[in-house]
Amino acid sequence: MTQHAATVVGGGVAGCAAAMAAARCGVHVTLFEQRPTRDTPLHSDDMLCALTGGPDLGAAALDRATGLLKAELCELCPALLDAAGEARIGENSLSVDPVRFAHLVTRRIEADAAIEVVREEARALPRGIVVVATGPTTWSPLARALHSAAGAPFRFSFLGRAPVIAAADLDLSAARWAPLYPGADASLFVPISEDEAEELRVRLLAGQRVSPAEMAADTVLGDEADPVERRAADPKLFRDRVVGGPRGPEVTIEGPAVRLEPHAAGHETFGLPDLLTALTPEAQRQALDAIPALAAAQIVRPGSIHRLPWLAGAEALLPTLQLKRAPRVLLAGTLTGAAGYVEAMATGTVAGINAARLVSADEPLVPGEHSLIGALCRALVGPPPSDERMIQANYGMLPDEREDEGRPKRERRERQIAGALKAIGEYARAALDG
Ligand SMILES: Cc1cc2nc3c(=O)[nH]c(=O)nc-3n(C[C@H](O)[C@H](O)[C@H](O)COP(=O)(O)OP(=O)(O)OC[C@H]3O[C@@H](n4cnc5c(N)ncnc54)[C@H](O)[C@@H]3O)c2cc1C
Question: Which residue segments constitute the domains of the chain, with CATH numbers given?
């Protein structure tokens, strides 16, 4: 019999992870999701756990940060990763069919007797223990309520997503499958002529933009938000990075090529990851018309750039993901300053476990610093990056071991992996079984 009760606001990746983790700890959860009563520019349906950008949940290999994060999550609450496994379309990375993934998670959460889904916008902070996981589309009045509870200012970063096109009507007669770099999943490269590449570049440069108002021409952007029209201003950069073809030695394509990345099972849709853009949908259409092989393709989701709010590090948050000034409120997902689906699952899981512990009057816990999830929680309350970019898990967050100095990199990595899995195992026993 589960007991009352924690609230989770936001049924995205982080909110679903939080709700499932709290329910796994024996606590009843009320999960608020505003869709379909209020739509957002990032979501196209009312499914929970929508992947709003690309379909990739990152590498499987443990020596890559997303691989280790996923291995740690499996020790805590593997429900979302189980669904991702069932919806998988990638071979090396955990790339999924986003629609199937969202359906699987929605069905599981709706069938879970410990989770009640309420399709309503939360316009204030709910009473009691609450995880707020409202993500990139956190708007007022909830944003105002959060700001006053945190007593700290929001920071803002930009993230973008690439256009997605339907496969029907594409002319793929000259296209070739190849990994972008050795070890990557295969993409489909559509060769284009030098003239077509130049025409594409000119149309990208000339197209009308709908960048967020705060994104000035000189705003410094990482790869995750740098629109192709900026790269188009430099012909060499455009030739190398946008239409440069595969970078590995195994497959070469003579001349420029446009990269198509599978975005759904059965290759029904493809993303254009090198064409992340802030152009209007009409300007995106005109740019694609420069490439005869893509000219008839329907754009099923235009590319776009978004400005995300998050709460600044140590002023606002504790490593338990509680608000410093209002510890009954926990944050998860992009609101913590962490970017990435797997980071959203990780912060959601820790926030959900700690919400359950607070409901049961137990001390909230942080995974050990040798685990990547623990290191991520600590990094979120460290000094914010000077370039205002959000944080992603990486091996550099793990503590340096003096006795490991001088060992070969591979051996050091293996020791880090073993240390991380040991630390997360200890946390799992304390937080879930203790
Ligand atoms: C444009 C863009 C592209 C991205 N692409 C990628 C990518 O390719 N790969 C990657 O790893 N990460 C990507 N990210 C980063 C980010 O990690 C993901 O967006 C991730 O899904 C964030 O999870 P979340 O749970 O914090 O937010 P979301 O998944 O957006 O979930 C928030 C949920 O809260 C709901 N909500 C909001 N306000 C309320 C309210 N007041 N009441 C009730 N419900 C509410 C929303 O409807 C939504 O369902 C991208 C981000 C953006 C903005």
Answer: 3-159+307-433 (3.50.50.60), 163-302 (2.40.30)
Count CB-CB contacts under 10 A for residue 235: 12
Q: What is the dihedral sign for C-alpha 279, 43, 103, 17?
A: positive
3-class DSSP state of 132: strand
Structural contact between residues 310 and 352, judged by C-beta atoms closer than 8 angstroms = no
Do residues 272 and 284 make contact, with C-beta atoms less than 8 angstroms apart?
A: no
Residues of the chain above pLDDT 70, percent: 98
Q: Residue 125 has what DSSP assignment? A: P
Residue 333 CB less than 6 A away from ligand 1? yes
> 168 by DSSP, 3-state: which?
coil
Q: What's the gap in Å between 363 CA and the centre of ligand 1?
A: 29
pLDDT at 264 over 60: yes
Could you tell me the pLDDT band of residue 3, with boundaries at 50, 70 and 90? low
Over the Cα atoms of the chain, what is R_g?
Answer: 22
What is the pLDDT at residue 4? 67
Which of 9, 61, 60, 79 minimizes the C-alpha distance to 333? Answer: 9
**Type and span of the H or E element at 206:** helix 194-206
Report which protein residue has its CA nearest ligand 1's atom 4: 53
Q: Shortest CA distance to 196 belongs to which of 146, 243, 164?
A: 243
Question: How large is the average pLDDT for residues 155-177?
Answer: 93
**Does the beta carbon of 284 sit less than 6 angstroms from any atom of ligand 1?**
no
pTM attached to this predicted model:
0.96
In short, whether 47's Cβ falls inside 6 Å of ligand 1 is: no
Over the stretch 114-140, which tens digit does the pLDDT of each residue have?
Answer: 999 999 999 999 999 999 999 999 999
First-to-last C-alpha distance (Å) of the chain:
18
Mean pLDDT check: name the lowest of 54-68, 229-243, 405-419.
405-419
CA of 64 to the centre of ligand 1 (A): 23
The residue contributing the CA closest to ligand 1 atom 52 is 159
Rounded CA separation 256/345 (Å): 37
